Amino acid sequence: MTEAAESGPQDGSSVASVAIGDVGSPWTGLHAQLLDKVGLAICAGDLRSGSVLRIEELEERYGVSRSVVREAIRVLASMGMVASRRRVGVQIRPATEWNLYDPQVIRWRLASPGRISQLRSLTELRTAIEPEAARLAAVRAPLANASELMGLAGKLWAAGQAGEEAAFLTLDIEFHRLVLASSGNEMFAKLNALVAEVLTGRTQYGLMPSHPHNEALQLHVNVASAIQRGNPADAHEAMLGIMQRASAEMSSIWESHSTDITANPSPNVP
């Protein structure tokens, strides 16, 4: 589930463990498998900043061709995660240099031991952006978009009441995508993939219950209604309520992990 799920687990014990290579990728085949394995190993800190990736070692370890290795490295370089250096080789870059907005990087970080810290950062980002997007949508959204949001809010309510997690997740991703798109701000709209990864990750790692609370569902209805009525203040307030509830539900998990994160920080976490 997503922000609408209001009573998630109060500790990290239910967070699922995902095997390397199972986190999903927009690419396919051997290239995707290698990319996932190396990308997640970097995000998890198994391959540390400053260490060097040897093409020959990757070929032998994963049983893939040189062309597959080179293509995976090319993609990692485009994400800012590695860089080729003369007389050194392919070197892993510090996390401060990564494209942290890349959906694949977000997916790997959510699959790593540092997922709680990543969720906190992403929730703070969304809290800064999505209420303003909702406010703008109340002013700029086409009538068709406003009507579609009302329909999505109704379907979200039905899916939430029925405990249909997969359907709820799909609808919630579309709801937040449409709010961002309806803001009329192309920069906000481009954050839709990032938001989708956050919503998916919270469900995938067991941080949401199967049934959301009615109050959270109502907040989604309130957002849609305010946008349809052209009331920017109400739209902002309702979306802020969604974000604040998400943050409140996650806060106990963040606090329980803060000591561990401080004592054992991932070597690649910025």
UniProtKB/TrEMBL annotation:
Gene3D superfamilies: GntR ligand-binding domain-like (1.20.120.530), Winged helix-like DNA-binding domain superfamily/Winged helix DNA-binding domain (1.10.10.10). It holds the Pfam family FCD. The keyword Transcription applies. Keywords: DNA-binding, Transcription, Transcription regulation. Signal peptide: none annotated. Residues 28-95 form the HTH gntR-type domain. One of its GO terms (molecular function) is DNA-binding transcription factor activity. This is FadR family transcriptional regulator. It comes from Lacisediminihabitans profunda.
